[in-house]
Design a protein that fits this description.
The structure is a single chain. By secondary structure, this protein is mainly alpha-helical. Helix content is 79%, strand content 0%. It is built from 14 helices and no strands. It starts with a helix and ends with a helix.
Length: 287
């Protein structure tokens, strides 16, 4: 159960990104916010545990591009152009995108039980969505594309042999951040000076949402599997909406509370199903 609790912290922290943007970072460029989120976090982790990457450079670069250098700008474009509940909802298509990608890439048909739980959870997420929100098409496309990148990277991480998750996280963030610097200069020009108002938001998204959360994300994929981690990611919009209520002053209606209940129910049933399967395998190892 401890592995699932640690995994649950990841989407909760990532769900706080939208509140951090609304409260602290709305005057900064999304591309430079992506740089400040990735590069300091990666360099800090490398200072704590220096050493070579735990994967060949080609694989390390692929993970860095998909998980950081391409994902972060798309995520922040979505965060700047969409309400947090909308961006989180689109990001929570991860279980469905992952199942589809496994089917297309690996030929692995989704288990009916897990597919149904994913659909129940996503139905709850749709109910959480504020129906009066104007959905910006660029922001929506960015959120869906960012989620697809995470799905692809999750499958690589599941299959590639990695034992040093800490150093993997450090190099992903460092390489991704370095790749983002020229992109940010080309798109936005020189960065604006960071003010004391913006600093708490950058510290939050860099230290907690990147250094800690990416370590926990990679560890969780290895410990509980990419499918389970994708299901747990549906807590992202729940966290985004909850923080919107307490920090940004958003109000939820009864359908949205029902949606939260549906998401939680699907996650509980998923964890129960996984643990039941593991107990059966333990009792009957021959099967």
């Amino acid at each position: 159960m401890g592995n699932y609790l640690l995994a649950a912290l990841v989407p909760i922290l990532w769900g706080s990104t939208y509140a951090a943007v609304s409260l602290f970072l709305h005057d900064l460029s999304p591309f430079w916010v992506a740089v400040w989120r990735a590069l300091p976090a990666g360099l800090l982790l490398l200072l704590l545990k220096p050493g070579r990457p735990p994967l060949p450079w080609s694989k390390m670069t692929l993970l860095s591009v998909f998980n950081i250098a391409a994902f972060f700008p798309l995520l922040f474009i979505a965060a700047y152009r969409l309400p947090g509940s909308v961006a989180g909802t689109l990001g929570a298509t991860l279980p469905l995108q992952l199942m589809l990608m496994q089917w297309l890439v690996e030929g692995k048909r989704p288990q009916l039980k897990m597919l149904l739980l994913a659909l129940v959870g996503f139905s709850g997420i749709v109910m959480i969505l504020n129906p009066s929100a104007n959905i910006d098409p660029i922001g929506a496309a960015a959120a869906l594309a960012a989620t697809a990148l995470v799905a692809r990277a999750s499958l690589w991480l599941k299959d590639w042999p990695v034992t040093d998750i800490f150093r993997l996280t450090a190099w992903q963030l460092t390489l991704g951040g370095l790749l983002l610097v020229p992109l940010a200069f080309i798109v936005e020009g020189a960065p604006k000076p960071i003010t004391t108002h913006e600093l708490p938001g950058l510290v939050w998204v860099s230290l907690l949402n990147s250094s800690f959360a990416y370590w926990a994300f990679s560890r969780s994929i290895k410990k509980i599997g990419a499918d389970s981690m994708a299901m747990i990611s549906m807590l992202n919009p729940v966290a985004a909406v909850t923080l919107g209520i307490f920090l940004v002053g958003e109000v939820l209606g009864p359908y949205q509370w029902l949606g939260i209940a549906m998401v939680m129910m699907s996650l509980v049933l998923m964890v129960y199903s996984k643990q039941r399967t593991q107990r059966k395998l333990t009792l009957n190892p021959a099967h």
